[in-house]
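Quick look at the format.
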Amino acid sequence: EAELRGDASLAITDVVHDSRRSSPGALFVAVRGLVADGNQFVEAARRKGALAVCSEAPPAGEGAWVRVANARQALATLSATLLGDPALSLDLVGVTGTNGKTTTTYLVDAALRAAGETVGLVGTVEYRVGDRIGEAARTTPEASDLQALFRDMVDAGCRRAVLAGRAPRDAAPLAPRAEAAVGRKTSSSSTERRRTTSSTKIG
């Protein structure tokens, strides 16, 4: 549920969570992180052209403001909607756990490529969109960055994507619709693996 203050007819061209990446036409989503609170950067985003703000906090300053209960979930929903919900065009395989995520994602990626698939990969070290490889800016991408990667994958002809997450709490921004999930938990005595084939959230 959301509360809107301001013009509901604004033409939004981008959804961002980093005020430095704001631009004319953007919707800035103020996400509270462990270190910084996005609400501290609302004015910075506006100065760079943001037309509206989405936040858990009450409206502040001039301009359109959307108040939501969970800004991070809103970031995922808004960015997916703006980009045409690209995840719907991908079969997603999610990998979570304590150890072995990187190895597992590469194994799944390699198996799919060997079968002739064009694959996307969101790893803790690098991102792959078909044959293009880029360094991962962060271990777990924010939802808007992930949706942009999904859009690139679909546009590049990918039909499947493999994703790694640090822990179950990372699942929501990583993959809202996973066709398969692999959970890894390694200890000195055992290795547990779990795979689900019905539409399941990662973790």
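Next, a different chain entirely:
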Amino acid sequence: DAWEKIDNSSVLDGAGTGQTVALWSGSGTSNTLTDAPITVSGNNTTFAGNVSVIGSSKFIEVGSANTGTNFGFIGWNSASKYLFLGNSYNSAYNEDLVIDSSGNVGIGTAEPQGVLSVDSGVAKTSTTFTRIASFKSSEAYAAFPLELSIAQRGNATSGSQSIELQAGHYGLDFDANLVLQRDGGNVGIGTTSPDRTLDVRGN
């Protein structure tokens, strides 16, 4: 059957598909209807029941616009079977957080190796001090809250690559309190380059 206007003033042309929503595809006095996705305008829209997005690798976008850096999204990767949460911060679909089929969570990686895997995205040869995770007190940034951070410091020499555990003021760089070297298992306290099994510097 043809679609009809709600006021029944005339019959509109077009054939619809069962359980789809019609889109008035023209403008002005156009009378053509076709199948279309649902667009909801306005605030505080309520759906009395479950909302399903079914299909291969589908996602839901949330933001001020679905272009550029204006939105985030949640979706499903059908091939690898994981749920992801992302952001368009570089005008691309970045899968920033992943929950795989085993319930493991990956941040910065789509292949978590345990309950929680975090990938800093920085090469192991980069000498830049890079925080991987941090925990801080509740003061405002200007009040220099306390921070406990896990960081990496790379080097072209594998024996000098390290993971660092640090305590200090949030957002500020400071010397590592505890350093675990990649090769050799050296541990440093008060130094970022331990040269023996346990290397303690300072008073």
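Residues 144 and 169 are 5 Å apart (CA to CA).

See the schema section for token definitions.
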